[in-house]
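Lab manual, section 2.4: Encoding a predicted structure.

Procedure: take the sequence of the chain (450 residues), apply the prediction step described in section 2.3, and record the output as structure tokens. A sample record is shown.
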Amino acid sequence: MNCPACKNEVNQAQRCPICDFDIDLYRKIKSISNRLYNQGLEQAKNRELTAAIDSLNKAIEFDKSNVEARNLLGLVYFEMGQVGQALTEWVISTHFKKEENIANDFINQIQANPRKLEMYNDSIRMYNQAIEYIKQRSEDLAIIQLKKAIQQSPNLVEAYCLLALCYIAQKDKTKALSYIEKVLEIDISNPKAIRYQNELKSSLRPQVNERTRTVGKHEPKRRNATYFSPLGQIVGFIVGAICTAALLFILVIPDKTNHLNKQISDLNVENQRLEEELAKATRESQETISTLEEEIAKIQATNDELQQKQNAIEEAQKINQVETLYKNNNVSEAASLLMSIDLEILPGDSKAAYNALADKVFKEAGRYHYNIGLSDYSKGDYNNARINFEKSFLYVKDQYYSDNVLYYLGRIYEAENNIEKAKEVYQQAIDQYKGTDGANSSRRRLNNLQ
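Recorded output:
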């Protein structure tokens, strides 16, 4: 294998002999990350999606360049309706491995269907709107938004959980349980859904009340008929009504009142519990959003840092390539590659090598392109002559022939009828190389053009 720091071949060494990188520790970290990836893969196959996310995130914590773990994590997020998180993981994956990475196919499939992507975005917007409605205690409006969100993104687990909570608030526990069961069909390890399911099943369990039965029949006692006068019947009716009212007031009404008071008390307790659940769910949602935003920021910062290190290594590697080209007498290619190096990100220990190469490579390349330019100019090949003269002046400006480079460039522009550009180049030769043959010749040509 190659050292991840300096790319030197290390084979079975425990430390890199070049940069002293701890290869043994690196292998152990990679092994732990791969083991966590395999665990997450098995959990994903069993639809334990929340558990799989936990395992895969740990795998990435150990090895941020574990492309397989990032790709699988993106698929798990996508399966749970979190398309934004999925895209984030796949984009980061392509930074670590640009070619032959299945993440490119996932991204292309989503981008190829902008309508589908817009639907995913709409579902998240509706979910966030539902949270706002819940804060305003408008569960009916929240339910409407959540149902629309689920229509747009059928696997949006968080929307199902919040919808179930809204139905709990409306005391429709049967419907709440049906949505929780849909969550567990998607993710059997979702801790929130498991907790809701246990509470709902407990409250919906039928209570069996045993009632005593009266066995046997009671024969009515025969009474002797008694004659009541019409007045006596009226008086008896009034007395009976008064007695019935008194019995109702003494026995029935207090019992009914107590029962209603108990119901009111139970409802108040249940209402308070649901308010706490809603508040907790809202906090969890906000915390989840904040956590995701922080994680995205961390990932982006880490990605930027890794990209900067990678860019610095690539710039340093160019130094070795320039040196090889120069030794093989490919002066033109060596100068072109050396000119492309970004000095701002070049590591400090490589700048001395750059300066040493620049001093000799640019001089030889400038002279080489000047001579080629003269040959092309004499043949009337002005296009190639201009290219070679411009390269010569780009690499060096303080050589004995630099004044002539500008003079010949002016002659070429003049021949191409680009008079303004010819005047500009002639004036540059006059200003920068006073007293030289090239400057004097440029002055004469410039005077003729005035």
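Check your result against the sample. Residues 230-327 form the longest helix (98 residues).
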